[in-house]
Design goal:
- The protein is an alpha+beta fold.
- It has two domains: 37 residues, no CATH class; 33 residues.
- It is 37% helix and 17% strand.
- The protein is built from three helices and three strands, in the order H-H-E-E-E-H.
- The radius of gyration is 16 Å and the shape is elongated.
Length: 71
């Protein structure tokens, strides 16, 4: 993924279409438009492996939902 957005990072201000303050997402002009978002979850802060019923698939879905909500 980094290779896909690397050309846009060289000159972000010229191509930046949307950058909401205090948001974790941005959209760059291009063909096609490029959207990037980033959010993290930290073990022991956002989740714990020892929680009853812990499932990495559920964690992945939660992280995906968190990131997609920024778009």
């Amino acid at each position: 993924m980094l290779r896909a957005i690397a050309p846009y990072l060289d000159r972000p201000s010229a191509n930046l279409l949307v950058a909401a303050p205090d948001d974790d997402a941005a959209v760059w002009r291009g063909d096609p438009l490029v959207a990037a978002t980033t959010d993290t979850m930290v073990e022991e802060i956002d989740f714990r492996l020892e929680w009853p019923g812990f499932d990495f698939r559920k964690l992945g879905r939660r992280l995906l939902a968190i990131n997609l909500s920024d778009l």
